[in-house]
Inverse folding.
């Protein structure tokens, strides 16, 4: 029986020593066939020679597709690019500074999905490069199945938010759902002057179809090099609420249309309680065609953000005053 292709998409920029480890860890997987789609985002240190060396070592079950961008797309744009180039039934988003440590990860995860007809997404546990503490506080290695609606409502932004490199998804199902429609394209993002986030959109969509397979087995390492995606100024320049607002509004509309009540409730809570916007973004509302509900959600979110900020000021001032007084005392008494 022929196995289905899995596409591993890697948005890359510099860090060839990390990217080499990333590719090697994929090649060590026991599963075949594998497609690796890597896009070098016009980095000063070209990854072409590195990828060519890895291509020469590939067995017949692995194909590496390499692209080098002529203009820098940024992390979000580069991630969208590699996803568009993937053709597998399954896919995994693996950052260029992360790597896999369980050689049976693909095999076990795909088996878990294929064992349950309504399961189109699975995820495992990860470790941080500079810490021994796991990404998720779960330790069972066998597979558990969680109702997708319950997962979205109770776990996704609570105790079971997985690392990107530990999640395997059914790409064919995402295509059936026209998943690209839920993302802001790079050109629109530049007009709006925001830096979007992929915002777990694919996880939301697939979890809404049925169940989610979960295991606590350690399958990947979250790399933490200087200048990694998660530590750049560009990545941290805006609140998550702004970066994910349009995607979540589109998801809200979809869940409302399909009567997926857990999804509607989860997105509503995101807007008004969890991922608040720090400013009213008129360009973003224009992108959403000034829909009344989008204006209402953004206004409430902005109001809640400022109320939280207001109530946090006395505490922050007290902390700063305490630090100042402590410093003065130490300076006066020299201890």
């Amino acid at each position: 029986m022929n196995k289905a292709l899995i596409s591993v998409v890697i948005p890359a920029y510099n860090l060839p020593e990390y990217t080499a480890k990333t590719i090697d860890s994929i090649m060590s997987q026991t599963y075949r066939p594998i497609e690796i789609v890597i896009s070098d985002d016009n980095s000063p240190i070209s990854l072409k020679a590195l990828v060519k060396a890895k291509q020469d070592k590939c067995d017949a079950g692995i194909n590496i597709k390499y692209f080098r961008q002529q203009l820098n797309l940024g992390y979000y744009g580069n991630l969208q690019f590699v996803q568009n180039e993937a053709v597998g039934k399954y896919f995994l988003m693996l950052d260029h500074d992360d790597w896999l440590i369980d050689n049976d990860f693909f095999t076990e995860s795909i088996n878990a999905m294929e064992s349950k007809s309504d399961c189109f997404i699975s995820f495992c546990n990860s470790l941080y490069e500079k810490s021994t503490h796991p990404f998720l506080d779960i330790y069972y290695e066998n597979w558990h199945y969680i109702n997708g609606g319950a997962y979205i409502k109770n776990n996704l932004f609570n105790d079971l938010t997985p690392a990107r490199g530990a999640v395997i998804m059914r790409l064919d199902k995402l295509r059936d759902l026209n998943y690209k429609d839920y993302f802001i394209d790079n050109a629109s993002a530049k007009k709006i002057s925001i830096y979007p986030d992929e915002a777990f959109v694919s996880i939301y969509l697939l979890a809404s179809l049925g169940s989610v397979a979960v295991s606590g087995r350690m399958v990947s390492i979250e790399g933490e090099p200087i200048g990694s995606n998660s530590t750049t100024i560009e990545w941290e320049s805006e609140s998550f609420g702004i970066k994910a607002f349009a995607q979540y509004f589109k998801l809200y509309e979809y869940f409302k249309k399909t009567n997926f009540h857990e999804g509607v409730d989860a997105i509503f809570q995101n807007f008004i309680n969890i991922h608040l916007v720090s400013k009213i973004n008129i360009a973003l509302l224009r992108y959403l065609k000034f829909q009344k509900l989008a204006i209402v959600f953004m206004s409430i979110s902005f109001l809640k953000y400022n109320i939280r900020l207001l109530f946090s000021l006395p505490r922050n001032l007290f902390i700063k005053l305490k630090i100042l007084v402590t410093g003065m005392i130490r300076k006066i008494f020299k201890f």
Residues 240-311 form one domain. The chain has two domains: 6-236, 240-311. The longest strand covers residues 211-222. The CA atoms of residues 196 and 243 lie 4 Å apart.
